[in-house]
Each structure stands twice: as structure tokens, then as C-alpha cells.
Amino acid sequence: MFTGIDEVDWASLRHAYGSAEDVPGLLRGLASADPAERETALDGMYGAVHHQGDVYDSTLACVPFLFRLAGRAEVADRGGLVELLVSIGGHGEEEDEGGADGLRAAAGAAVRAGADTFTRLAGDADPGVRRAAAGALVRFLDEPDRVLALVRERITVERDDRVLIALTEALGRFARMHPAHAADAVALLAAQSAPPYGPGLRLAALGQLAASAPDRLPADLAPTVVGLLRERSERRPRRPDRPSHPHTDTLVGRLRRLRPSDEEGARLLRTLHGALDDRVDDRIALLCGQLTGPDPVDRCNAVWMAPGLFHTWRADYARPVALIGEQLGEEHDRLRDAAVAVLEDLFSLAAPAADSLAALVASRPDLWTRRWEHGPPSLGRPLKALARTGDARAVPVLAEVLAGPVVPDDAAAAVVHLGPAAAPLAPALRHHLEEAPLDSPEAGTRIHWLLSALGALGDTEALPGVLRILRRPADGSHPSADTLVPLALRTLAAFGPAARESLPVVRRLLRSGYAVAAAEAWWAVARDADAVLPVLLGELEREGRTAARVLELLGPEARPAVPALRRLAGSERLWDRTAAACALSRITGDVGSVAPLLRAAWAENPWTHQPIADCLAALADAAAPLRDLAETELATRRRHTARPDGRGSHDVPADEALLRVCRVVAEA
Fold it and tell me: Which residues of the chain have pLDDT under 70?
């Protein structure tokens, strides 16, 4: 197995942490009779030699030895070695933006050169090896007819359900990789999706059909899948579906312990949901069926499928969200915790589950805060989720938390979502702001959220506490100054004319490094354009987009800034151009002259949609030349915050805020 290993100059090779001289020990550890040593060695391979999917010269040097280890029947856990080879070779299949990276391409070629080994391993006595080899055959053997024949043969003789599912998944990949040979693979998948095959295999086939040949899916897809899930659950043994492993504090070990209790079921569902993609109605129906099933494990898997749908596509999710809320009353800890975690990231979209959240918060005071071994406590997830829905039932509970001996730093963060209902919390928030130690770096997060909350409430009685922060040296010498001073100034801006007492302090800051934020506060409090225009014009070159945004707030009062803003609108920087165009349209009342620029920005970067939409909403009828942007956005089903790789984003509130503004623009 290790012939020639000492002839490699490992010390001259590199991995993620420097010299690869320790790699021979890792390779030998993979063949150890001690399970803990094998797991530690595999962890080292992923942690250093194949760190975060990267490929190094030492990774390439390992490939021949990994193939030898995978082919020796006396080596245990060889399925994991085949998976490692697939991961190493798989990163060479796709090109980076600047062309295929040399080492990655070489890794792909090295694994492809040894692909005949996978044909032997596909019939190995170890089902774990056969399962891993199934996908490797399709990915690395460059003979489509031979690959299809091998997979077809293995399906005929295989008796292990988990290996059969892996072969079915390999068929789906084959159909997508080789369109010219896909017909036979799709026919096999269609046959496997129907009786007499078992429910797990049929689910796997349906997931692959959804990705490869959606026209072959049954018309009653959701009821069919839900029925198969329930049948599978009835057959599933109530024991771990994978062999026991040593309890080691390795990354591999931790990831293994974090896997779902029904990992195979979770993967089958993830594949199907991912392949259905924008078939939102089908996915909602499927989720609702999963969430009303009798098996808590199936429901837990369904809960974890929901974020990918909710965070990527716009739709009416009231029913599935309410069903997720119903899981909060379960005694099944993993299911309840999953439901809370999903609802926490939905903000106002979690409103249909508010009753369930409120019931959990009321019955479990121990969940109001979360204690950590190190560091201060944080707000408990159920209470945070309830507050983020805007539900007033969170207010009395937050009052108790704020009155406690140790207040979570993020307790005030929940207040900003509660609107006027949170007014009773203002005295406690003011007290904590006035008592916060300004010299403590650790207090920065708490002060940040306190300022945000008091600004959102418009609590002008907090003015002394805000001024306490601003009266500190304006030279950035105190902790978190660069963050807290601008935020304190924005809090004053939120108070408006009621904060006139602050003007002497703000005047001093107009001549500091916080000049733009101070100008915004001065305008909001004093409405004195003569005082802030020179400041903003002076900052326009250095703080282009930020200064332009404040000039936009001045509207027609900022006409002297028009020439400078027109120059900024020609900037190479997208955000400077966008901010300048928005400011020009608000100042002149004419969006037509900058409409091409705003259209281009809207098309170039989805994150420009919100500031542009805000500008159009402020223009009212004058926004007519660009109203179609808002109308198109409202008709688009994909969230503007969804990531280009198809994965959802946790920033649901930003997308919902954009939709609200676009409705205003469209209805103007």
C-alpha cells in the first residue's frame, strides 16, 4: 500500500498549514486498525491536505496512495476514502473564472486516470464502498456506454437499498452529463419511480427525474411523494442507519454527530426540492404534506427543507409557516429546535406562527435567554423570533429580560421590529444606554442596538444618553467610535427637531471625521441647508455615495450641489453613480435625465434596487419614467437577495422591504 511513500520529498510539498512532512503519517493512519486513529487521519486529510476543498501539490501526491488504500479489502472505512478521492477529483471538473486552476485540473486528471479502480469497487463486498463508487463511476469514467452498462448491471444485482439509491442518483447525474445517452438512463429512472420498487428508491428516482426529465414526473407529484415518505417511515428501522463510530473531537466526528437522524431521508428531500426549484406551488404542497405526517423525523427534515424555498422565492407561505409553528408544541427536541431556528430567520413572514411562538415563550421562561460557556448571554431564539414578527406579546417578556441582572447584548435588537408597541420598553432602554461603560470594547454591541432601538422608537428622552456618546473625543480614540458616533448621529436625526439641544455638539462634529453623519443630523434637527451644504460638497469626493445620500434628503435645497453630483454620476464606481443619480432626481424633480443610469445600475446589481426604489417612492408621480422597474420587480418570483448559485439568503427582511416600496411606486 505504501510502496514508494518514503521516496516522495514530502517536506518540499505543501498543504494548508505549510510543509507536508506529516502527510505520510496521515496516510498510514488511514490504514490503522484503530477506528479513532483512522478518523483522526481522515480529519487531517480534510483539514490540511484537502482544506475546504483546496488542492495542493501534496494532495496530488496522495492520490496514488489513496487509490491503493481504497482497493485493499483489509482496510476499514474505505467508503470514506473513495469519497475523499471523489472530492479531490471533483474540484477539477469545473473551471474557475480565470480558467482551470492548474492543480485542480491536475487533480481531476489524476483521479480520472485511476477511474478503472472504481469499476472494481462498484462490486466490492463492503456496501459503503459500493455506495461511494457508484457516483465515482459516472463522474470519472470517460466511456458513457460502458458506464451506463455498468450501472444497469449493478442495479440488477444489488440488494442493499442504500447502494441502490446511490446508483439511482448516479443515473441522474449520468443523464445530465451525457444528454446524447440520456434516454436510456431516464427510462431506467422512470421505471424505478414506480412499483414494485420500494419507497426510498422511488423517492430517489423522482428526485433525479425532477432534475433530468421533469416531464416524466407524475401529475400528482406532491401526494405521491408524501405517500412514499410515510411508507418509507413505516419501514425505517428505529435505530441508527449508519455504523457506529468513535467519539473523537475531530471535524469529521463533529460533522457526523450533527447529521440528521435520518440522513438518507434528508438527502432525498433536499435533492427533490432542489430539482423542483421554481415550481413553488408543488414545493409548498409537498412541504405541507411532509409537515402533517405522523413521523417527527420526517417533519424535522421538512422543516429544514423550508428555508431554501422561503429565502429564494416569493409566494404566500402562510400555510407552511403555520405548520412549522405547530411543531413548537412537540416534545421532540430536535424538531422543536429546528422549527424555532427556521422561524427566527423569517422575521415578519413568521407571523402565521406567532401564536405558537407566544405559547412556547409563555410556557418556557428558561428559553428567554441563552447561556454560553464563554461570553455574555444572548436573547433566546423563541423570544427573538416572536419579536421579529412584530407581535406585541413579546413586549412584556422583553421588559422582564431588560429588568434582569444580566441583560443580553442583543435584547435591544428585537425592539426595532416591534414598532410603537415597544414604547413601554423605552425607560429600560434609556437606563441601559446611560449606564453602558463607554470605555469597554465589549459594550459596543449593546450600545449599538440600544441606539437603534431608541431611534426606532423616536424616544427623545434618550437625548442625554445619546449626547453622552457624542461628547466623547471625536478623534476615534474611544472603543467602537467609528461605529457608535455615526449611529448616535443617526439617532439624533430620527429624533428630528426635538433634538435641538444637541446642535452645539453636532456643530463640532461637522468639522470631524464624522462630518457626513453630522450633516445628516443637523439637517434633520435644524433644517438649515446653508450650514450643511459646504460640508457635504467638501466630502463628496471622499465620501461620494454617503454624502450624495444626504444631499438627496435635502431635495431642492441642495441645488448648488447639482454640478458636483453630475460629475459623480460619471464615476467608475457603481454605488457612487447610483447615489448621485438618485440625489439628482430628488433635487431637480426630474428622473428622466438619469433614467438610463438608474436602469443600468438596477440591471447590474440587485442590491441597488432598494435605494433606487426608495428614491422613486419619494418622487411619487415624477417617477413615472421608471415605474416599470417596480412593476417588473413585483412580478418577479425570485427574491432579489437570493444568491446567484441558487441558494437562498438569510436577508428575507430586505427583500420584503423592497416589495413594500415597489408597491408604493407602482400604485403612485
Answer: 91-101, 238-261, 473-481, 645-650
Using CB atoms within 10 Å of the CB of residue 65, give its burial: 0 to 12 exposed, 13 to 18 middle, 19+ buried. buried
At 319-337, the pLDDT tens digits run 999 999 999 998 888 999 9
* Cα–Cα distance for residue pair 84/136, rounded to 1 Å: 11
Q: How far apart are CA 510 and CA 503, in angstroms?
A: 10
Collapsed DSSP state (helix, strand, coil) of residue 19: strand
Q: Cα separations (Å) of 440 from 112, 436, 478?
A: 57, 8, 9
Contact call for residues 579 and 545 (beta carbons, < 8 A): yes
**CA–CA dist 639, 659 (Å, integer):** 9
Distance between CA 536 and CA 561 in Å, rounded?
Answer: 9
C-alpha closest to that of 429 among 364, 439, 418, 440: 418
- Gap between the Cα atoms of 630 and 616, Å rounded: 9
**H helix or E strand, kind and range, residue 386:** helix 381-388
The SS3 of residue 313 is: strand
- pTM for this predicted structure: 0.86
Strand ranges for 147-286 from DSSP E: none
Give the integer Cα–Cα distance in Å for 502 and 521.
9
What's the CA dihedral at 185, 188, 189, 192 to 10 degrees?
A: -160
Upper half-sphere CA count for residue 198 (Cβ side, 13 Å): 14
The answer to whether the CB of 266 falls within 8 A of the CB of 297 is: no
Whole-angstrom Cα distance, residue 105 to residue 33?
Answer: 34
571 with 577: CB under 8 angstroms? yes
Q: SS3 of 638, please? A: strand
Residues facing residue 96 across a β-bridge: 99
d(C-alpha 392, C-alpha 389), whole Å: 9
CB 665 within 8 A of CB 630: yes
In the 8-state DSSP scheme, what is residue 155? Answer: H
Number of H helices, E strands in the chain: 35, 4
53: left (phi over 0), alpha (psi -120 to 50) or beta: left
- Residue 409 has, within 13 A of its CA and on its CB side, a CA count of 14
* C-alpha pair distances (Å), 309 with each of 317, 562, 606: 10, 44, 19
Q: What's the full length of the chain, in residues?
A: 668
Which contacts qualify for 263-270: CB closer than 8 Å, 24 or more apart? 264/162, 264/165, 264/200, 265/200, 265/229, 265/232, 265/236, 265/297, 265/298, 265/301, 266/301, 266/304, 268/165, 268/200, 268/203, 268/204, 268/207, 269/301, 269/302, 269/305, 270/305, 270/308
Three-state DSSP class for residue 532: helix
The Cα–Cα gap between 225 and 269 comes to 9
What is the secondary structure of 92-140 as a DSSP string? TSS-BTTB--HHHHHHHHHHHHTTHHHHHHTT-S-HHHHHHHHHHHHHH
Torsion of CA 251, 255, 258, 260, to 10 degrees: -170
Q: How far is CA 15 from CA 11, 19, 38, 92, 583, in A?
A: 10, 6, 19, 17, 51
Give the Cα separation of 657 and 617 in Å (integer): 13
